[in-house]
Design brief:
Shape: globular
Structural class: mainly beta
Distance between the termini: 72 Å
Number of helices: 3
Radius of gyration: 22 Å
Helix content: 10-25%
């Protein structure tokens, strides 16, 4: 009987620890890499993996069932098995010490999945956007997993941007769309869904906000996750069809 009671007590203690650990998770913890995010004042940037054939991702504190409290750090214990290779392009998020939070999607992939995690800052080199793209640099049909954008000349130095994005959701699909006429300024096209000048209202005003940049042969699209249903985002690097 005593052994049975001890077993129940041990099981209760383990469950209590598990609940306590789960309740301690904080998505806003600055040591936790959750992705790139949106910033009204700063367009998204791109970096290229450099210097090594492979660069391993680095853990956040809540990885490995809450056993990575000291991460991110330059230790073997913080090193993930997953990695990127030299010349991979990533979307750049926050920096913490010697590490940068990045988001990566393989080029030409058909999957809408992303890899997110810390990478050493020393292994990343900024990729500069096109300095002065002409209207023809923007126009065309641009594709990305689950979605597409069409950009056409609209006269007076303006461009018409229309696009759709579809994201699988359990047994259904969530979708979003954007449509705007805007004029490039400083190498960036920025617009909101209701046509007001970007970004006149404070972020969080339940309006779709979009920015476009030309980077190399690609079109970099970013939005504030208010351009469609749950989980729908146009953010990513688009290839010209």
């Amino acid at each position: 009987m005593r052994a049975a009671w001890l077993g129940l007590l041990n099981l209760f203690a383990l469950n209590l620890l598990a609940v306590s650990a789960a309740s301690a998770y904080d998505a806003t913890d600055p040591a936790n890499c959750t992705g790139i995010g949106w910033d009204d004042a700063r367009p998204l940037t791109v970096a290229r993996v450099t210097g090594q054939p492979r660069v391993n991702f680095v853990k956040s504190p809540y990885d490995d069932d809450f056993k990575a409290a000291s991460c991110p750090a330059p230790t073997e214990a913080c090193r993930k098995k997953s990695y990127l290779v030299s010349d991979d392009w990533v979307l750049v998020g926050r920096t913490r010490g010697n590490f940068t939070c990045v988001t990566y999607q393989p080029p030409r992939t058909k999957s809408q999945t992303w890899a997110r995690g810390w990478l050493p800052r020393a292994a990343l080199a900024p990729v500069a956007p096109m300095a002065a793209p002409t209207l023809s640099d923007w126009t065309g049909s641009w594709v990305h997993p689950g979605g597409q954008l069409t950009i056409k000349a609209a006269g007076g130095g303006r461009l018409r941007i229309e696009g759709d994005q579809v994201v699988p959701a359990d047994r259904d699909l969530n979708n979003g769309s954007i449509a705007a006429t805007a004029q490039p300024k400083g190498g960036v096209i920025a617009f909101v869904e209701d046509g007001t000048p970007p970004f006149e209202k404070p972020n969080g005003a339940d309006e779709c906000r979009v920015r476009l940049q030309r980077i190399g042969a690609l079109l970099l699209v970013e939005d504030n996750n208010d351009c469609g249903g749950a989980g729908v985002s146009f953010t990513g690097l688009y290839h010209r069809r």
